[in-house]
Amino acid sequence: MFAFEQEDEWSVYLNRAEIIFKAAEGRKGQKPLFKPSRASLIYSHNSFSSQAQAQAAGATLNISSNIAYNEHPPCIAPFDTLEKKYLEDLRLELAHRGSYVILRAVVNPDRLVSISTIAEDENGEVETVQIYNQDDRRLPVSIVPEGQVFIVKEPFFKMTFGGGTSIRVDHVSDIIFLDGEDERVPEKWRPRPRPLARRPLDWKEDGNRFYGRKQYFEAAQCYTKGLELAEPYSEIERILLLNRAQAYLELGYTEKALADADKVLGQDPLNIKALYRSAVSCYEDGDYESAKARLVKLLKECPENKDAKDRLLRTFRRLREQRSGEYEFAKMRNEVKEWGNKKGNLDCAEYVGPVRVGHAGSKGRGLFTTRDVKFGELLLCSKAFKVCHKEAEGARFTILFNLKTKNGQSGTHSQLVQELIQILYHNPKKAKRFYELTSGDYERVKGEMVDGLPIVDSHLVMRIMLKNCFGCARLRALDDPLENLFKDPTKEDKIIAEASPTGRAEGSGIWILPSYMNHSCWANSVRSFLGDLLIVRAARDIPEGEEITTNYLQSESRVEKRQKLFRSQWAFECQCTLCEIETAESDEVKDKREELVEKALKFKVYLEQSLTKVGKGIEPMIKLVKAIEATYSTPEFLYPRVPLISPTHILHTFLVRKQRPRDVLALAKGALNGLGFKIQLKAGKLVIERYGYLHFPIISFFVHVITAAAISGQPSTAMLWRDLTINVYEVVAGERESFFDVYGRALLEAGVPVN
Ligand SMILES: C[S@@+](CC[C@H](N)C(=O)[O-])C[C@H]1O[C@@H](n2cnc3c(N)ncnc32)[C@H](O)[C@@H]1O
């Protein structure tokens, strides 16, 4: 990983990386020309450690070198079948199939994206080792302290960005950390004097000490050691299993926790702690029926157990959410607000509405409705398989760049890959749902387990992540577009916009069922986020059996640009109505439109400056918007005028600020028509007769109509639009409860009641 402060460092970095990777390709299979001495390697490791820490602390943005430039699959061969090699046998840019090296760390490690250390082999040769994708919650020194012996299976030896060499361990299943007692540790590295023999009880006490200090990995490791020595079916075995189950729960290893608790229940079916811990494991995995059964059993034995009663109550609520899709959104939203910059997950269930996965022809699988669905209906409320919010403390915000495809992804993606790998490694049953997601043309290795442990292919995880992840914010509805319009992009924003297909800096996550939705530029559903929930609602009436689509990009740019991104990022060509009609338009029309839109967007600066003066620049802006409209020859209900969204938004915001409500009223209604909406007054209510193009910024068009009607003395019109807007808001924000939170101030100022 490389951190940078200046924008131009970005291209310098990429050019340099490209040169180095090309040079490395040319040296494939060769021995390194130069090997630094042990002393100089250790010296530069130690000085880099302090530099890296300083740099990481001061950096605004990081480029992750988790670059898929050389994908080598993980080792699937059992350890017994591998042949021992030494450092001098390694050749550049190769994964040494059928071999392993055994090494000992000679320094304490440091960490940027990977954990980096210097290790020696039995001949005293030394090499840098970069260990990727270990759990971020652990201190590197607790994973590979000086003196730690470890095996790297099928080591991948490579040139580094700095021009040196290193063994790069991408796959967690390729590294085995050995303790001193392991018979694979060479005799000369065995601890002397030998440690005193220990009893299971000693390990239990050590484990409890670690647990008390919240060092759950270390605690679980101690309990495991104790269990290796404990008599089967003994009391100490039971205690160690129960303690380890609790440590696993803290770590999120729910499957392992359940296995330990169930083992105790196998010997002692009414063990209270085992029943409770197994129920919590089931609850955390969303298996609320099993959680309920276990808690009911527990409460029969122990009716006054408060924890069990509370948990059972929560379980009933989850079961209701799961069945009905009824959530306490206002409460949940407040909870998310209170997270501040802490990590968090909402305590709620997943709702799967009237949807199913089915075949979508050449698009692969897709999501379909199982019955007729009305505008605004909740289709899905999906819990994240894993999400990394950029708002959370410790978020690693990077640009992930693939030098082969020249694709960039800005956000928390590299952190997401690393955290996914840990989940997959420790929860193999849960992992199955993730592995069912598409990975494009990536060739998967055969085999799920080796030496009793799951095989996790980091490159596969990266590919699945890139194809299926959603960019997200914790509370989209807080980003009031009216408020944010005149904020200048920061330097970071500009770099991100240049490097990333969406042009946005975002958190990212994986949601399993929503991943089956295919793209349409004019989608029939809208997705939104609340904490770790992804909410999908119908953006129009959808008949039974129709495919549910989502807009991957929500881009206002022209068809050729969108298609380029679809090809490079997701390997498809979009054939939606919008793309078809726009492709058929002449280049001349599209060039003209693009030019006018660019002009209008630049006008923002001028308008902003003239805000303090008497509303000058406004007439030319109105003319520009009209000129963009005039480039269309197809009716708006066939072809919504998406490139008009931002210019219109700017114009309206300006008009609102200039107190020209009548203009806004007429223009905003016209803009909604331009996006394909047909809104009619029927029996004293406004109804949407035709659904147009819908996503979050469009809400401000509706809000402009409300405020403009109120300011120009039409309170009943304002109220009608207010009620309609709340319904539309629910679709784009996922819930209606926050509407007044976001727009209340603007409405009150215009004199619109907000209850
Ligand atoms: C997130 S997945 C969607 C589910 C996927 N169809 C599957 O079978 O698992 C994204 C992939 O779906 C396909 N896809 C999505 N939208 C498409 C579209 N409009 N046309 C063709 N293929 C599409 C592309 O292969 C893309 O890489």
Name the overall outline: globular
The CATH superfamily of the largest domain appears as: SET domain
Cα end-to-end separation: 51 Å
Main pleated sheet: 10 strands, mixed
Domain count: 5
Count every beta strand, where a strand is a DSSP E run of 2 or more residues.
29
Question: Helix/strand-derived class?
Answer: alpha+beta
Give the low-confidence spans.
1-7, 477-486
Name the average pLDDT.
88
Radius of gyration: 29 Å
Q: What is the CATH topology descriptor of the largest domain?
A: Beta-clip-like
CATH architecture label name of the largest domain: Beta Complex
**If helices are DSSP runs of H or I spanning 4 or more residues, what is the number of helices?**
25
| Helix content estimate | 40-55%
Specify the CATH class of the largest domain. Answer: Mainly Beta
Q: What share of the residues does DSSP label as strand, in percent?
A: 15-25%
Listed once per kind, the bound small molecules are:
S-adenosylmethionine
